[in-house]
Every structure is written in structure tokens, then in C-alpha cells.
Amino acid sequence: MKLKTYFLLALRIIAAVILLQTLYFKFSAHPESVELFTKLGVEPWGRIGTGIIELITGILLLVTSTAFVGAFLGVGLMMGAIVSHLTVIGIESKGDGGQLFMLACVVLICCGILCIAYK
Hints:
- The chain is an all-alpha fold.
- It starts with a helix and ends with a helix.
- It is elongated and about 45 Å long.
- The chain has helices at 3-21, 23-27, 31-39, 45-62, 67-89, 99-118.
């Protein structure tokens, strides 16, 4: 495999792992997740719907033939997350030091690069 192939695989895995690891919090109605989506005024349907889309996106990213679609969905999801953080939630949420915001930025960057690479 070429270096480019490994790099793109790493980006796909990083984005997918971040997206998939947050599903527990969304689908189990973890209090922090409920609080975030309540602030946005979309609890519970927004939390569950976002979780479903993130699950689909994570799976699509892990399959080479569907990576572009997954990356495209990831860009849309993370743009929404970042705008929500900047306008409603705040960069720091529940004393996390901005970790959720930074993870959204990492996924956005990974998916943006993947969209360009797989176009």
C-alpha cells in the first residue's frame, strides 16, 4: 500500500472511532447528552436522530467504497455540531475543557480531507 492509502485509512478510522464512541452517550440518554440536546431544543428526537446518522456515517467511513458518502455526511454533521457549540452550547461544555468541540473539529478536518481525496 502507498503512504497515501495508509493516511486516508487512518483518517477514516480516526473519524469513525470518534463518531462511534459517542453513540453510547446518545443512545443511553446519558445526562450530559440529554442536557446538550435540551439546550438545543431538540431532545429527545434530535439526540436519537443524530446518533442514528452518526452510526451510519461511522460505518460508511470504514468501508472504502462508501468512504466518500460517509465523509460527506461527517462534514455536514460536524458543521452542525460546531455551529451549535459556537452559538448555543459554548465551546466548553460541563467543564470538559472544550473536548467535545475539539473532537468535532478533528472529525470535520478528517472528513473534509477525505471528501477531497475521494471525490
